[in-house]
Amino acid sequence: MATTAPRQDPADENISVDAAKDWAAGVPAVAHSLRMAQQQMGVKRAALTLLRVNQVGGFDCPGCAWPEGEDRGHLEFCENGAKAVAEEATLRRVTRAFFAEHSMADLAGKSDYWLGQQGRLTEPMYKAPDADHYQPIGWPEAFRITADALRACAPDEAVFYTSGRTSNEAAFLYQLMVRRYGTNNLPDCSNMCHESSGSALSETLGVGKGSVSLEDLYKADLIIVVGQNPGTNHPRMLTALERAKRAGTQIVAVNPLPEAGLIRFKNPQTVRGLVGGGTPLANAFLQIRLGGDLALFRALGRLVLEAEDRAPGQILDRAFIEQHTHGFEAYAKDVRETSWDEVLESTGLPREQIEALGKRVLAARNIIVCWAMGLTQHRHAVPTIREIVNFLLLRGNVGRPGAGVCPVRGHSNVQGDRTMGIYEKPPAKFLDSLAAEFGFEPPREHGYDTVDAIRAMRDGKVKVFFAVGGNFVNATPDTAVTEAAMRNCALTVQVSTKLNRSHAVTGRAALILPTLGRTERDTQEGGEQFVTVEDSMSMVHASHGRLAPASPQLKSEVAIVAGLARELFGDRVVGAETDAATEAGGGAGASDGVEPVEWAWLAADYDRIRDRVARVVPGFADFNARVREPGGFQLPHGPRDSRTFPTATGKANFTVNELEVLRVPEGHLLLQTVRSHDQYNTTIYGLDDRYRGIKQGRRVVFVNPVDLAGLGFADGDQVDLISVWRDGVERRAPNFRVVRYPTARGCAAAYFPETNVLVPLDSTAQVSNTPTSKSVVVRLVPASAPAAAPATG
Questions:
Q1: CA 149 to CA 509: how far, in whole Å?
Q2: Which residues face 467 on adjacent strands?
Q3: Which of 171, 238, 623, 673 allows an S-S link to 610, with CB 3.0 to 4.6 Å?
Q4: pLDDT tens across 433-465, in order?
Q5: Helix (H, G, I), strand (E, B) or coil at 373
Q6: 348: which residues sit within 8 A by CB, 6+ positions away?
């Protein structure tokens, strides 16, 4: 049983490149999953753990947020889910001896792959100012250091980050602590990923979430998958698409890169998938130019309107438009004037291919559009998603079975975190409910999102950075600026299960607070606890950890938040005489000199937190009872449930969106950052990208063969990538191997976080302020003098 982590970083000069795959999953996915599980957990532990993933009474996968259906199988996990579980349930441990051996400078020189492979953190660690090593520290002292630092600064001089792995219970208590402290500085990973979806959908439909359920996919006539790679990022989605395809659904893939999973899927849980040829999924593949999606859906809207002109009353859903929408005439007038020349330049597609898709659209009654970060990380991301809504509204494809918007979220509870109040711009109604329930006045001024938090740290406006989960340094743009910003803080605190680069790039003082993983038993004063999560389709369900904790010194995220809050504010002790009042809601007011929140009492039994959530957050009535039902419950969604739209107009809004063609200077390419198949977000599981043919390395750039020839490079050349931005700063990612690959013409792709250095901090999406990681203008130059790859490699 191999449980020893690698002792040194692998060298990228060992990269080899094979032909890309035209299918996903199958026997290799099973073999790879089992091999990694065995290496990290051992055979018996792996079997017992994987059989509990996404099961009723088991634990929710710590990977993606794809939902589980009512007919879930005994093996309800994918290859990347197995990798996520294996890394969390690993038998490898990071002890105080490790930190004694490795200095801060040494850790900063390691890659995230190496750091993550060392195993689970086991006790709190502290790096004092000017120290070059972390030292063990007790929990009381760790809480005291953090509280002292927070008391030493104004509330808005602290930032509280959250990753999408945090449970509903921890997220609710966390935002409560932050607002009790006095700030809305609550950036989270949504700011960098799906904020554009939330912004566009809130404006047009009134709810910033998807409007479809899993069952809707099986009732759709047409599913358009745009800017998404489910084979790597949401592999269980392929099973749903396969079921839809076998029910007669047409599937169209729109992407600059051919993605193996959307070409053909060999379902590893069926005989056909293991030994047969699998299921061809996409009926058509539109290899769109990066950023051309707005133009595509604008063109489709024009084709629908022209079809209505030819057959009045037979194409548009006039009743729906008149009763439930606003702004149709302005939209229709604008779209009819769409220039085909601009559409073709923007999309890079032949007109015949767009018109062929238009025919599929007209032949389909029920249409779903799915998308992910390929749409959300452009400057015009919000207008693009608004244009998708326009397209769907034309024929009433919102609020009926088999139709709607399907933004596929990434991390397992990123949607739930937002529902629980992790948001820098909280609605007034939420704050009003929070004030009424807890007896203190929360701050009303909007706080920092992720990009603004980096700017504030850079400018010396933030003294304390506190993160629950995630790898902030490697998840964010403009790596050099972000690292300098973090080092500008007086104290940085990371609540983590494993090591990552954010533990090596710190403030002058730093704390690592080790926490329980999703797979582990969570025992508090009130007994064994469970947590809840919300998936991409607004289903809320329970997650029960079953493994013994990796160390007796681990605390749950809930316990860590409550422990810090008690140190920071004191505690309201709940006795028998006040239990009834507390259960009924409404604590003592902070103005009375009594701490209004019963931190320890809430953390002792998570049912108490859920009771509070039920009174604060709409849709969670009878939370404790409903979440104990098999499969949990679905949150209400007005557009989906009753075609009611809580927008400014009270209706679904058509919008007019300017078509901006992204034009790249001669000799440059438009770069998108992507994941490899051996990673999830910034967690690097391995150094292969099996579907794209990459082995033993990550510093590669995928370029179209015609573009390579035009630029004077060849497959296998070593290049540096230099991004071009109006501030004139040279941002360089060195030592990349060129890979000849069938990308869209004029476009390139490379893995993040290695290329986050190329994304300017100030290059963000309109409205959402999301970094534009999918549209970075770059040039390729011959590699500089040989040098060691940066630590993010």
A1: 10
A2: 161, 494
A3: 623
A4: 999 999 999 999 999 999 999 999 999 999 999
A5: helix
A6: 287, 288, 289, 292, 744, 745, 746
